[in-house]
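Our preliminary data section would be incomplete without showing what the modeling component actually yields. Below, a chain of 187 amino acids is followed by its predicted structure, encoded as tokens that our downstream tools consume directly.
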Amino acid sequence: MEEDGKFPVLETQRLVMREITLDDLDWYLAHFSIPEIVEGTAYPAPKDRETARKELDRYILNLFREKKGFRWGITERGSSKLIGSCGFYKWVKEEARSAEIGYDLNPAYWGKGIMTESLETMIRFGFERMSLNRIQVLIPSHNGPSMRLVQRLRFKEEGVLRDRSYFQGRYVDDVCFSLLRREWSSR
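Predicted structure:
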């Protein structure tokens, strides 16, 4: 993928999407403990700094190391402060050429088009540089804003995965959406 082995930095008019490193541990712990992010992802907050370090390593750092995907930290141009993240997981490079995506944004930045801008840039990277044919996202059924976001980006709802997750003492349905290269190209 990246011939020089370096993590790809993506830029837009307003944003810089950069590699997340172990130096971002404090951000990870604070960010993934924000109640709206915990609820929106249906994934519990890290219990402590050590748990956050293990999660950061497992879910973000190892993705790139093991060539299974990318997770970008989102910053506003001119600032090094992370305000969110987005990335590809479960990257299938041969035949199916597919990947899943995930994303999150500090609620202070909601409603400003930042995640739309980030995902458009990331999706373009996925289809053009990763040679993907299909991008999929699973969204907890109670996260209406996230579902509306991917629908604006032309993702199609494929179905509901019933009781797929267990979160805060209850089972949660996930809604599956996908976007194909030909749909992205024809927009």
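Helices lie at 25-31, 35-41, 49-65, 114-128, 144-152, 181-185. The chain has a mean pLDDT of 95. Preliminary results of this kind motivate Aim 1 of the renewal.
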